[in-house]
Amino acid sequence: MKIIDLSLPIDEKAFEVHKVSIERVSHKAGVEKFNRVIMGKTLAGRLKYALGKRIVKKEELPDEEFLSLETVHAPVHIGTHLDYSFHYGSRSEGLPSKTAEEIPLEYCYQDGVKLDLSHKKPNETISASDIENALAKINYKLKPLDIVLLQTGADKLYGAPKYFSDYPGVDISAIDHLLDKGIKIFGVDTMGIDRPYRFMLKEFLETKDPKTFYPAHFYGRKREFIHIERLANLEKLPGYGFKIACFPIRIKNTGAAWARVVAFLI
User: Fold this and answer.
1) Residue 22: beta bridge partners?
2) Which of 30, 45, 94, 215 supports an S-S bond with 66, CB 3.0-4.6 Å?
């Protein structure tokens, strides 16, 4: 069995629209942080710390090191993640929207299908006919619960501004086609399922037509679906014959959650 990583990292050095930072406490600095945190729990402890007293000294530890500690400050939409209906709006299919921790886990380990749509250009959308044509090329018929991955190749732009401006979106007709086949989760190797906002915003400001602004995301208010954003390495997959695991991190009351998405080739 071969395992292929389909995930992008959370990287504070990569270009991002939203602020990402990772506070890193080294092994050496961890000794001082431990003293500051523990002694800081009481007024007496804070005073002693300020006067130079330490309850643990670096000389008392192996190699004069404590434990490292990293604190990540990032939106749940950074890195590879799953979006659920709460992200799209407060209600879906007439009911209160569901958060990412409510994604049924049985949906997250299923047969995978990779569709090559790398011919689609920025500002174009992937339609139902594109899905049908891609399926015909690999001679595959979708079945309920398949996890469908749409390959555009946009993951190769990750880390630079073009990652946010040069990729195709997903048309509502394609979402309907997948949902009508019993698909619960589909994924893209782009930063989002809608066209880049530079195209959408321009059209929306010119026309004031709400249908031009995040139509794929807002469609989740009409029909419930889960999708994966920011996948990578889809070119390493065959059209089908593999398993996908995409279990979301359990975070309370969020519309999305990070996931380490992997493919298992048997």
Assistant:
1) 72
2) 30
User: What is the tally of structural domains in the chain?
Assistant: 2
Which domain range does residue 238 map to? 2-15+76-265
Picking from 52, 73, 94, the residue at the C-terminal end of a domain is 73
What string of pLDDT tens digits covers the 266 residues of the chain?
999 999 999 999 999 999 999 999 999 999 999 999 999 999 999 999 999 999 999 999 999 999 999 999 999 999 999 999 999 999 999 999 999 999 999 999 999 999 999 999 998 999 999 999 999 999 999 999 999 999 999 999 999 999 999 999 999 999 999 999 999 999 999 999 999 988 988 888 999 988 889 999 999 999 999 999 999 999 999 999 999 999 999 999 999 999 999 999 98
Amino acid at 27: H
CA-CA-CA-CA dihedral for 69, 70, 73, 76, to nearest 10: -110
CB 150 within 8 A of CB 189: yes
Q: Are residues 68 and 128 in the same domain?
A: no
Gap between the Cα atoms of 76 and 143, Å rounded:
30
Whether 107 and 191 map to the same domain: the answer is yes
The residues near 4 (Cβ < 8 Å, ≥ 6 apart) are: 233, 236, 237, 262, 263, 265
Backbone angles phi, psi at 149, to 5 degrees: -110, 125
Q: 92 and 197 share a domain? A: yes
